[in-house]
Queue: 3 jobs
Job 1
Amino acid sequence: KRQFFQERAGVFDFDFGSGGRRFHSRQIGLAPDRTPVRMLGGARVVARAGAWDLAALGVQTERRDGIASENLGVTRIRRRVFNPFSYAGGMVTSRVDGDGNYNVATGLDASVRVFGNDYLTTRSAATFDGQEATPSLADRSQFYLQWERRTSRGLTYFTQLHRVGADYRPDLGFLPRTDFS
């Protein structure tokens, strides 16, 4: 059954390295308390139009045993820029339940081949949900910047800057920890 999520899954990649992922398909079919729930249906579209990669996924879960039904959605766009090895894009994920609770995560990313085998990668994301006391944007966001040399011969190197706020919570993602730089 995971084949539905695995085919052309690379389009949905929005990886923060050791800081987790913005979208992790294994979160679908699990209630927020991590108990399995039945999926009533879903649809997924993945397409390439010229330099653009487009992807969307939507799933509806059933209501059971005090667990509200949920509508889960992911939209991803990505476009090649500057050269065939570089791209820029964005992603939005949403988790909305029948009781009015929600979690929306937005993000922008780019990986640019600057010259030779040197790449600059940047990713930023923020989450929004129904909390009464809304934390600052810095507390509910994640930022990642990396410069690296990718090669199988000779000298390789990388340096990175990574920050995750204390209240950053992507419900459809995977996040090993929060509040670190």
Job 2
Amino acid sequence: ETGESVRRVVDIFNEVGNNFAVSSAGIGEAMLRSASALQTAGNTIEEAVSLIAAANAIVQDPVKVGTALKTVSLRLRGVTDEGEEVANLVPKLEEQFSQIGLTLKKDENTFKSTYEIFKDLSEVWNELTDIQQANILELVAGKEQANVVAGLLINFQDAIKAYEVAQNSAGSATKEFEASLDSFQTKISEFTNTVQLFWSNAINNDGAKALISFATEIVNLLAKIVEHISGVSLAAFVATNA
């Protein structure tokens, strides 16, 4: 089960990294800073990676994206990065969301995931006034992370696409590895063929032929010498006939 989970995560990182403006390593950097908070906020691994992919396409900084998503996912539940509750934050958010026809919760006792909240918000974002957008950004993200959240909302179509890619990523890393292996084997074959061609060309060269003929004659001569010498070493024979 653990192995399957690891393969699933690798496949998601690999496939989303291949298709969006964030590398697998970048996803890992962002997840390192936000995974625990995103999971606590009810996000699946696919939802978390999708948020990272969409935000990073705008921000181009996985570390900043990860930090922002940690902050935001907690604030949407009325908690700071340090785990402290922010007084009246959830009621203020609920009031602001209610004014634009949205909710923070699935029911009285269950928050929506960060992904679900942003998906809802992205669908009405362009219809809001500047003041409404500013108020929501400050409540949701605070002043430091507002630009990341704004970028995410503007680019949320990437999050939706990345989510679909993540859901259909099973086996992608294995396929890519096998393709790389095939490519490696092809390169080895090309190298081997090149070496063979080199020696074939060298052997067809007149100078090489002469060298090989000379070496052959020497070997034949030595063979005859050894064959006709009995009880005397080759070295001694050479010495006496120098």
Job 3
Amino acid sequence: KLVAADPNCESLIHAYLRGQDVDRWCPEWAGMWMIVTQSSSNVGWPWTGKPSSEAEAAFQQTYPSLYTHFLPMRDALIKRQDQGEYWWELRSCAYWDEFRKPKLMYQEIQYHPSFTFDKAGHLANNKVSFITANDLFVLGVLNTPVMWWHNWRYLPHMKDEALAPVGYMVREIPIPRPTDETRARAEELVK
């Protein structure tokens, strides 16, 4: 409806994944969308650097359907601690471009290996982490039973014995260096 009312806002509406949508091998997108109005600290918007009232008028003129959509939530959005320069913006983020790259995504609460490959540029909520990589071999290794055995002993356990693959520990997971033949075979199987 927002895009039908204002096609200009289409570039700000992105598919995103929740933790439960990140499954083994392939994400299962549930049709969820995120409106991404990056902070003026990251993007030079038509309203960047303007006083609040002028900036809000510029936002309304540039993206009228988004402005109308956000308006009923204005007070709550103003109270957020994680906003950008203006109430309709998200906080500053140094890695927005990383979401557009091929990446290995994983659930932050796992009951089984839940590593997936995303080349569609999905965004994610706070229950998903990712490694910018176009590496199906690594994806294959992370989803193996032997890696689950390792992770069960290495990663922190949560309620109901779920594993928490926290970022700094995931970086330390031992991934063997494959031969060219092993890599090619694994990538074929993962596909």
